[in-house]
Design a protein that fits this description.
631 residues; Rossmann fold; 3 domains; five-stranded mixed beta sheet
């Protein structure tokens, strides 16, 4: 095995690994039996096909040949751009590949899409137009340019959940554009990959769209966040990029086979192993050791937070790891929390954090100053070294990231097994989805706490905090500490942060609902530094809705009750530069998630901004003033 974990050897970890080996944990996963089977049940279905999916693919050449044929055929139809529409695990893998620089070539570009903000569609169209050197000014595209883009662009809608509707909105928008611009054979530009009977499946049937199974064998026993690397969620983009190099069907098939062989070699778990071999592998596997170490620290010392330290070239895998861990394990007040892009120095003194250095190619990402800060506080520091090389499957990052996708699931399942957490399913997110659908389909405006006197102002709604008991009296705190009154947005936010901190808050999230511009990101980053790291000494997540409601919301609403979530939304948004795509679903999702958090008695604040255009400036003013009050 080409992976090594350092710093995770303790008597308690050895005891837990021995317990996993004695109970044949790997055998339970492979044979779908015992307690592992019980923790994999979702609606009566056993979601464990990820365990031996790579090995099954290697044993069925016809599956790989079908992938190669799909990829080459799509390019032979003249497609040069693919928009991959999905949410959560259906699209996070594609984002990871994009962030690693693996989805752009002269012959093909694959772009993920997981937003219901019209600005995201505008940005996507403008990026594609710029890539093709088509005329564009001030985010406007002439009809001729839109038609030229559509002529060789396809959209693949993906959903591994039964109730995800965002891809339906994207496909509807795209399909109507194809018709409006009279693109020949529009059915050749749309495909769907989803579960039978899902909302997206029903949509595809009504539209007559081509449907392709997600699992290579046509079954449906894999959760979306565990779909890489053994399903089309990973293998289809890989096959497309291999075909875009000019490879024929046979060559693409061999590239895929080599990629999966290297992945399986790194993974090591096989249904061909004996009980004795599984026992030895359990004791030696670095990712099972990682899961056992975090499980031990979470139980014994409440260290349930892992801070990832990533080399710049590999920072793109961090959101995928975060989603896998938190959507799987944030259940019934339990869980394992993942953070990245944090200040190591600011968090070094915290006793609830484990620091994990992802050493790509064996080279540590931790700086000398950061290591010294951790050495002074004697906080747990692990180093996970993994190989980055390939013997013939294209860019070596493909094989390396496939190995990460396969192996991290073992760490998650070890933690879940040792903490008795049902790893399958995401029950915590269904309430917000129901609220969002109800609000979107109602004939009344989306309700936010914005009165007639608040027009054109930034507001901070803290009703959920008052109900959860984060403070006894907002007015008293505002008057005594800040000499202010209700309606003063910065003072209200500062009071919310102080009140929640007294209630045991141990991390923050700042969630912006919509496409994040450079100005908005700058304001969020500054708030993370001044409010989170400097004033409160807390780890801070920066999130984007609705995409992250499919990535970390399960943990936020049902996992460790340790966070204050600041949800942010503008009340007016951009208009689409092509086609029809209203912002009502985005507003409904923002309001629905806040309401679901309130129902769950979680600490949540809703910030409303007057317009999307001024969002960056408004947030900068809000956070700067709140940070000064906290200081």
């Amino acid at each position: 095995m080409d992976t090594e974990l350092r710093g995770a050897s303790t008597p308690d970890v050895e005891r837990l690994l021995t317990a996993l080996a004695d109970q044949d944990f790997l055998g339970q996963l492979l044979e779908r039996r015992g307690r592992a089977r019980e923790l994999a049940l979702e609606g009566g279905d056993v979601k464990l096909d990820w365990v031996d999916g790579v090995e099954h693919a290697l044993n069925h050449s016809e599956w790989l040949e079908a992938l190669a044929d799909e990829a080459v055929s799509l390019l032979e139809r003249g497609i040069r751009r693919v928009i991959w529409s999905g949410m959560g695990g259906s699209v996070q893998t594609v984002y990871t590949l994009q962030r690693l620089g693996l989805l752009d070539s002269p012959g093909l570009s694959i772009r993920p899409l997981d937003s219901t903000d019209p600005a995201a569609l505008n940005r996507l169209l403008c990026e594609l137009a710029q890539r093709e050197h088509l005329h564009r000014e001030d985010r406007e595209l002439p009809a001729a340019a839109v038609r030229e883009l559509l002529s060789d662009t396809a959209m693949i809608g993906v959903s591994m959940g039964m109730t995800s509707e965002e891809p339906i909105t994207h496909l509807t928008w795209f399909d109507e554009l194809l018709v409006e611009h009279r693109i020949p054979n529009p059915q050749e530009h749309i495909e769907v990959m989803t579960l039978p009977g899902s909302f997206l499946d029903a949509f595809a049937e009504r539209r007559g769209a081509r449907r392709v199974p997600i699992q290579l064998d046509g079954a449906n026993h894999t959760a979306g966040r565990m779909s890489a690397p053994a399903t089309r969620v990973f293998l289809r983009p890989a096959a497309l990029m291999f075909a875009a190099q000019g490879l024929n069907r046979t060559e693409v098939t061999e590239y895929l086979r080599t990629l999966l062989r290297e992945c399986q070699s790194s993974y090591g778990v096989s249904y061909a192993t004996t009980a004795t071999e599984r026992y030895a592998l359990t004791l030696a596997h670095p990712y099972l050791r990682l899961g056992a170490f975090v499980a031990s620290e979470a139980k014994a010392r409440r260290r349930n937070k892992t801070v990832l330290i990533c080399p710049p070239a590999w920072r793109g895998v961090a959101p995928w790891i975060e989603q896998l861990v938190e959507e799987s394990l944030g259940k019934n007040g339990k869980g394992w929390l993942v953070f990245y892009d944090q200040s190591i120095k600011a968090l070094a003194s915290r006793d609830d954090c484990i620091f994990l250095d992802l050493a790509a190619g064996g080279e540590p990402a931790l700086s000398v100053a950061e290591r010294e800060a951790l050495d002074e506080t004697e906080r747990p520091l692990l180093q996970l070294g993994f190989s980055v090389n390939s013997r013939g499957s294209g860019d070596p990052k493909f094989a390396a990231v496939a190995g990460l996708f396969a192996n991290w699931k073992l760490a998650v399942w070890a933690f879940g097994y040792l903490h008795d957490i049902v790893v399958a399913g995401q029950p915590g997110v269904e309430a917000y989805k129901a609220y969002a659908r109800e609000l979107r389909d109602a004939r009344t405006p989306i309700p936010f706490d914005v009165g007639p006197d608040d027009g054109g102002k930034t507001t901070v709604d803290v009703r959920a905090l008052e109900d959860s008991g984060a403070w006894t009296s907002l007015e008293e705190q505002l008057r005594q500490r800040y000499r202010s009154a209700a309606g003063d947005a910065p003072a209200t936010l500062a009071a919310a942060l102080r009140g929640a901190l007294r209630c045991g808050i141990r991390y923050l999230d700042l969630t912006f609902n919509g496409e994040i511009t450079e100005d908005v990101r700058g304001a969020l980053e500054e708030a993370r530094r001044t409010i989170g790291f400097q004033a409160l000494r807390l780890p801070v997540k920066l999130r984007c809705g609705p995409s992250d409601y499919h990535s970390t919301e399960q943990s936020e609403i049902d996992g460790p009750a340790e966070l204050l979530s600041v949800r942010i939304v503008a009340l007016e948004h951009e208009k689409p530069i092509a086609g029809v795509y209203p912002d009502r679903f985005l507003l409904a999702q923002a309001r629905g998630t806040w309401q679901a958090m309130w129902d769950a008695r979680r600490h949540v604040v809703m910030v409303t901004l007057p317009t999307y255009r001024s969002a960056g400036q408004e947030l900068h003013r809000l956070f700067t003033a709140a940070a000064m009050l906290l200081a």
